[in-house]
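Task 17 of the worksheet. Students: predict the tertiary structure of the chain below and write it out as structure tokens. Keep your answer in the requested format; marks are given for formatting as well as content.
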Amino acid sequence: MAKSSLRVLVIDDEPDIRELLELTLIKMGLDVATAASVGAAKLSLNKQPFDLALTDMRLPDGEGIEVVRHIAEQGLDVPIAVITAYGNTDNAVQAMKAGAFDYLQKPVSLAQLRSLVKSVLRVDNGKAAAAMRLDGESPAIQEALRLVGKLARSQAAVYISGESGTGKEQAARMIHEQSARAERPFIPVNCGAIPETLMESEFFGYRKGAFTGADSDRDGFFQQANGGTLFLDEVADLPLTMQVKLLRAIQEKKVRRLGNAQEEAVDVRIVCATHKDLAARVDAGSFRQDLYYRLNVLPLRMPPLRELREDLPRFIASLLERFSPDQKPRLAPAALKALLAYNYPGNFRELENILERAVALASDARIETDDLQLLPSKQAGDDGDAPACAAGEALQDFLDRVEREAILKALEGTRFNRTQAAKLLGVTFRSMRYRMERLGIK
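Model answer:
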């Protein structure tokens, strides 16, 4: 079995608590690293990427809030939660203002810990869900899987297109896992989540002393993926200045760390993805044509869920069993009919969200149509009352406006709880953060 690619950093100076948290997270299928101090935590964060961090507030050499601030100041894409003493909510509020997304109180409830981790990483059968969406009898998914097998045998760059929620990252992982590079790293990067000022150091690394705060050498994404696969998600969001540097790195197969005069060779296979029309971005002048041709050597399109109608009953049954393994809920005939007829603008991710919510709302283990809370058909793809693009408004500005309105509405409906808003929108917590940062939503 392939090792989990999700990595958690646990920061606590008490060995017993550290071991308890580590064992709990390992049982959830996660890779875990530990640190016993602020200094050790910063060192670990600077050396390798993490998908989540958990830190105690009181540490031998400082406060856990220093780790929170370090993550924010360095622009690291690491959601962090703090563990605080019972009844000490002031520390928790202070940490959340500094950038923490949630907190746990001591003594730590393992059930609450698992719930918190699942809300951020969507683990616990996450691999099974990913495998499910990339399997089926529909001709469209069968063709995609056939292409995945062919692309895995090549070393050329792959460009994966498709709507949000269609499994582009899962397809990229399958290509990597079936390739000759399977034993080497798979490094996923969300290009839209990295501040432009930090892009060069994040992609190519830096030497100690290259800039203020560079306390040690650090590998960039290219060095981390050396010998393996670098997956560039939402590649359309790369600014033009970074596109030039990425093109050179791909062409020369060499990168230069900030603060280093010498280039170093890297052996990396590039797989990229976006839900945007990259060819249209080239025509609009916001994406370099030469980089587009370098990335779009082997194309792969991931089909939307509405093209996989034959597999919907199996997807629905599997997800219901996943969300309620002890007592599988029954779907009322009208509810099943509604699910089979729905258009799923959010694709598989939306289907997961609909069924998870329905299981929670259902009475007597019977899901009725109202429990599904499906979007009205006009919001699910009809053009009748769809938002209109204003005169002279660029397409991307229009799409950003619609996305911003949807996020703000979800935040208002959940009293600005980002985790719940993400669930309502059918996206992961991390994706929610990326979108809010990109759109400037505070």
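Marker's comment: The chain has four domains: 7-123, 127-301, 305-372, 395-439. The two ends are 41 Å apart (CA to CA).
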